[in-house]
Amino acid sequence: MQSWFYDLADYSETLLTAGEEITLSLAAEKTGFSRISAGKVRQAGSIEQRMVEVALRSSGRESRMNLMLSGNMESDRAPIRQAIDRLSATLKTIPEDPHLPPLPDSGSGEVRSEGRLPRKSELIESLAGEISGADSCGIAMTGVIFRGVATSNAVRRWYESPLTVIDGSMHLCESPGASKWGWAGVDWHRDEVLTRRGRAEQTLELLSRPLDTPEAGEYRTWLEPAALRDLFGPLLWNGAFSARAIEKGSSPFAPLFSGSALDSRVHISERPLAVGAPDFGAHGFILPKEIPLIASGKGVERLTSPRTAMEFQLDTNGASGAETPSALAIQAGEMDPATACERVGDGLWLSHVHYCNMAARDGARVTGVTRWIALRVRDGKPVAPVGTVRIDDSVIRLLGEGLLELGSEVETIPDNHTYGSRHPRGAALPGILVEGLRVVA
Amino acid sequence: MTPHEIQELLGRIAPRGTWCSLRWVETHSENLTVRDEMLLPPSSTSDRGAMITVVTGEGQGIAATSDLSVGGLYQAARVALDWAQAVSDRGVVDFSKAPRPMKSGNWSHPVTQSWDEASPADLVDRLKSICQSMGGDERIVQRVVSLARSKTETTLVTTDGVTIQQSHDRLIPWMQALASDGSDVQSKSNGGRSDAQLGGLEILDQIGFDQMGSSLREDAIETLLAPVCPNGVMDAVIGPAQMVLQVHESIGHALELDRILGDERNYAGTSFVKDSDLGSLRWGPEILDVVIDPGVEGEVCSTGFDDEGLEAEKVSLIDKGLLVRGIGGSLSAQRMENPDAAMAVTRACSWNRPPIDRMANLNVEPGETPMTDLIGGIEKGIWLDVNSSWSIDDRRWKFQFGVEDARLIEDGELTTRVKDAGYRSTTIPFWNSLDAVGDRETWQVRGTPNCGKGEPNQMVFVGHAMPACRFRGLEVFGREG
User: Fold this and answer.
1) Do B265 and A139 touch (CB under 8 A)?
2) Thinking of the domain A2-207, which architecture would CATH place it in?
């Protein structure tokens, strides 16, 4: 894959005319997947794809074209040539772009991980089969993910990593309870997968008890790392740490960069290496090992793409155009997650918050609903699952005056979304204990 | 490559003794975005690939590849065969008995002003002009106007000799004005991403795209200055753009057969609807008629066939308030032991994902109440339109939605604009609070490019043609409500 991509880049450069510069960005994968419904295979198969973005620039203008290519130079020369011809023609019709950033400085680098991938039968068996009183569902995906960037000013960056992700759940047949589990790794470990699966099965007894659904009100709550990730989701896609969104005032976290603060124990950063993400962006800019976004509760740096840097006269930190983190990392605190129920006393324990959306920018208010392992805690013990209740609260409050403790263990959570392609990104977060989580009807 | 050539190709690569299909998809997309009167780098996409499905014994396997050479497809067919053998008798069904495409055909739709014949420079000038019309007030801190086009050519061939070719050319016009006074920020858009249509650039004139900029600016500033929506239980008229989201989330997803069957339990969720509810559950009052209609001109999922080759026709889902059918294709209907209930809704987002049950054109049929009477029939209530926030549980029962556009209704008249309005309810009680359906004058053909579902994940277009509707006793709230 790498030699094909670099050959493609070399060939592209031979097609340029005077004054033209080019960037090729690759997102490719060789994936196998098995989708399981009630312990049986709904769909299973392989996907092999190679998408290359060709960005041509000249005279302060840029135009881009994404090409799905075959991986065979003989076949791929023609579409590349046609794309460059077309982009070159487009550049003559569009106005100069005053915010077009320069290409990244020349340089090369390579991140290459190695590990064993499961066989087809192992992939199927990770989720298939019968469970007493419950259905096993989910998707198991495996294969190698590739990212590459090559520019006409001698940038050559390469990322290649195997990744297997098991994203599973168990659904009780006689009641609505369901347990969620997963495993992700570069190197396949069947025993670890079986251990996780067994642990999820053990939670089913608790989830099968009669519901103890809380009334609307405020509850002391332990939010697992995945629940915290869920609450952050809509804030990130609404530009929480985006330099542009903060400049425009549309970021829900804009107040944190102009005087307001979270609890001083909150430290948030973008840390690609924490989740095995590439150390370069889609256009070849190197990402720092860590970008501190919130330090001691206060806004520090922002995710600043090269374009935003040009527009607002800032320094870029190589962020993507969307200015969303590829690896949101929150520093651990001191509370042992094993003591979560004890510390909650009377309240809730939530593994996830489903289908979150931003209800209002003011306060970074997010709404979502309970799903998966949502437990009523009484006298310091988990006593029953809760039914579906709606959470509607301000994340700035939850990480500010509402924050009691940060968990002492950070969990690495892969990004399981596969819209268009698999994505080597994720989050590394602790759980949090909060006072007064707002439950509405 | 012609459908005949693709059919011949399948004959060369299909493993002996198996049943195979090959779905060849080519999508060409364009995107132009003007932000604050400056053109962002134009982008386009040329996406080509094929998915091969192989059935051997009881098992089915698939392989998707962007290598469309004979060698690449031959190799993919062997990979699909390996998967079919690995699945063997562990599938959700005996795939050798799964329904297969029966009828060949072609389908396309009229395009009056093709994107291919337009001058890119003229399109940019047009977008800049709209963007300019959104400005002129320092409280407007960001203006974005974009135009996207997605043209997909799909050819499905099988080793039974079936050949289906279809073409869909879609346009997604979008604009947004962001208003800020330094402390509060409000945004306004043209329908909250629900303006996707099937057709060419003629759509821009049909929806009055060039004229929307100035009214969006005024609406954004008016909303910025507006009081926060009051909390309370009140009657509401929901406009067509918000009805898109309301019906999509609380009818469409709830009725998908693959959710009812449990296939989506691990990701998108399940449904409160049970198999036994089909034909017996009263979803709403008799004025509620909900259909899947593949024949609405300009609606974004009008089509001739689905991606598993079933011919499309109009079907009723909710007939005079009674739930009669779920949304599912041939395989799901067979698994529900009601094969006659299949409809042409098994779709894939592209060549690299397998088809699953999706909403297509999911529409509420127009009623008889004019807009003046919808509003006029409320003494104290609210107008809610254009989605800004959406959240619903995984069974599609309990929901909370927010809107960009809200105005109080007092003594049968629209009065004060309010901001940060939201409402919450539960699905069946909500739909049974419906007491008037707007007439054809209120009915708008709309569509969204962003419906996500499936594992691996798939984002597809969904069409929704909606009237305005009136609901009684809705829990409405503003900020912190």
Assistant:
1) no
2) 2-Layer Sandwich (3.30)
